């Protein structure tokens, strides 16, 4: 069955009100897309950030009187003809359409991130099977990629690892499949803890090897602590991340912009020997070694 779609150019502050308006007019689904290819990075647990210029896309059933809907929309909001586009689209499998965008990706020499619904291109590689669900971390963001490449190039076999801000569990699972002996994922978003647990099972990793939980549990310091979180929280987390890293252990920080690197190096300089940042698309990764 074909659908009628109305696309409306709105701002992020209008999103909630517009979603309700379209739903009250009979839209069977309302979704939001980036109108200007503007990057968004999740800031708060559970938050669903939107782009400043947002494209609202609303689907209506084939027989909906779309001209009447347009007239109501224009009288009930500031939207005018220039903000609105109507299209007829053929039916498709919506879930699959999104999934088709997420393809297997290689990081470093031996590590692949493969959507859980595809076959790995190289069965002999280290293949992380992943369904990000609602949590952050599919490998497509440069900060995740920088962390995966670091893990791939590091002898993690037999080491203990803490993935602070584990999201989908992508880094924790990569560490486990690269041979780390014990990995703990921590995240203050319960959805991330659930996603990590489900991806652990998907990858056949024993719960004794990888566990994920909310912050607050005490842990022995680890050989490797990896935290891909924004710069502000990383500065605040210094006492915690520092106490979680063994003497001579490695700390990997990402999620910060290159221009924030120096402030972060300064924040960790008392406890760590910090290396220069590695930068990709404006995002940075900084590695430090905990002083003995
Ligand atoms: C950018 S995502 C990283 C996900 C994954 N580790 C990756 O590299 O793709 C950051 C994660 O950190 C979590 N987070 C943010 N602030 C945190 C905090 N103070 N304590 C624990 N987790 C936090 C968020 O919920 C989110 O899942």
From TrEMBL:
The keyword Lipoprotein does not apply. Keywords: Cytoplasm, Methyltransferase, Ribonucleoprotein, Ribosomal protein, S-adenosyl-L-methionine, Transferase. CDD domains: AdoMet_MTases. One of its GO terms (cellular component) is cytosol. It comes from the Bacteria. S-adenosyl-L-methionine binds at residues 144, 165, 187, 228. It catalyses: L-lysyl-[protein] + 3 S-adenosyl-L-methionine = N(6),N(6),N(6)-trimethyl-L-lysyl-[protein] + 3 S-adenosyl-L-homocysteine + 3 H(+). Belongs to the methyltransferase superfamily. PrmA family. This is Ribosomal protein L11 methyltransferase. The gene is prmA.
